[in-house]
Amino acid sequence: MVLDDLGSSLRGALDDLRGSSRIDEEAVDGVVKEIQRSLLQADVDVDLVMELSDNIKSRALEEEPPSGTSARDWVLRIVYEELVELVGESTDLPLESQTIMLAGLYGSGKTTTAAKMAWWFSTKGLRPAIIQTDTDRPGAYDQSKEMAERAEVDFYGDPDAEDPVKIAREGLDATEDADVRIVDTAGRDGLNAELIEQIERIEQEVKPDRNLLVLDAAMGQSAKSQAADFQEAIGIEGVVVTKLDGTAKGGGALAAVDETDSTIAFLGTGETVQDIERFEPDGFISRLLGMGDLKQLTERVERAMEQTGDEEDDWDPEDMMEGTFTLNDMKKQMQAMNNMGPLDQVMDMIPGMGGGMMDQLPDDAMDVTEDRMRDFQVIMDSMTDEEMENPRIVGKSRTERIARGSGKPEERIRELLEQHKMMSETLKQFQGMGDADMERMMKQMQQGGGGGGMGGMGGGPGGPFGD
């Protein structure tokens, strides 16, 4: 992810300010040096890095912190505000009829991004359509059509046509009932005269409301020159950063945004059409610094619950808050967790659990947790309806039978029963809690850095799926 290790690096530097009410210049220098190191390693342009560093240092040493604010919290706030300023606002994408054209080189992820964006607009109540104009890359039509089917959106393309402009023109006519039309264009290994001429002709035909540049997060300093060329050819209103689920640094995207005087529109965070996030600078930086992103977490939870509800129409998660918590409830919660995406991404959104917090866990901690969840699923599939509704009846003989049926060790079955007991006891603490109490608890999580916030969510220390 962009600036992967910045959060963990900053924590060490900020520890020198912990408990202090005075801003120490040496400690501030340490914070600034860590920021410089992380940004430069993430391929952020040197000029941007130096400007950010100077702003943080001058503000930390010259501005007066509010009364009662610790030196550490004050510097962290300044770092947060300056990083938000650096990444800029999110690209303006009104929820109304519009045409969007995607540009970018081979391998940047344009075709996948088109489907992801179409899916995103469909979740907002609009009817999107994808127009595939790439006549150069073998398989572009088939891939685009398949992705559109996964996103359950309209699609137009012509695998036999050779003129992308003709496809674009006919595509506009064929998708005239759509609210949002996303035009996918061809790419090249490099931006050459032929590609520029082609996308200019398509733009003249399509007359898009906005052009978005799609960039692979692994793109380094070359992103700046690439963005400049596309900006000169068609003008760029926003950037989509793809493949942030890997180890890519993504700093080149900041250089591209600065070069084109544009903003970031979306982040691609995985392989499925649902793995896309609207770029929100405050939430993005909050996650980076380990402060969480409750808005994005809430959206993922709601989406996961909807998907789980599609699988089991008779299950309502709110029932857990009112009645007995059964293994069936636990199984559905685990399915919802799976629908939320990789656990490390989810944990980044929880206050106190992101910003490099995962670096403190053993290398195989996530694998162990996910393996355990898969084992629990298999074990529960081997249990009777009576046992799923009342796990207290599972004794020695039933454990032996379940172990034989699931192929899992008896110890793992006992772990499942113990985890269920812990989750049941945790839920009892929330039953009867009013909205005001819940709101107060969430504010404490945001301000206090997480603590036991993973209880019931499944992954952190002390949580039901933690070690």
Please provide a brief summary of the model.
The protein has 467 residues and is of the alpha/beta class.
Global shape: flat
Level of helix content? 40-55%
Average pLDDT number = 76
Detail the poorly predicted runs: 349-368, 445-467
Task: Tell me the strand order in the biggest sheet.
Answer: 3-2-4-1-5-6-7-8
Oligomer: single chain
Specify Rg, calculated over alpha carbons. 25 Å
- Assign the CATH class of the largest domain: Alpha Beta
**Tally of structural domains:** 3
Total beta-strand segments: 8
Structure in words:
The protein has 467 residues and is α/β, with parallel strands linked by helices. The chain has helices at 6-14, 25-41, 46-62, 71-87, 110-123, 140-151, 164-174, 193-206, 222-233, 251-260, 281-288, 294-311, 327-339, 343-348, 365-381, 385-389, 396-406, 410-430, 435-448, and strands spanning 98-103, 128-132, 154-156, 180-184, 210-216, 238-242, 263-268, 276-278. The protein has an eight-stranded mixed beta sheet with strand order 3-2-4-1-5-6-7-8, with helices on both faces. Helix 10 links the parallel strand 6 and strand 7. The longest helix is centred in the C-terminal third of the chain and has 21 residues, at 410-430. Residues 349-368 and 445-467 have low confidence and may be disordered.
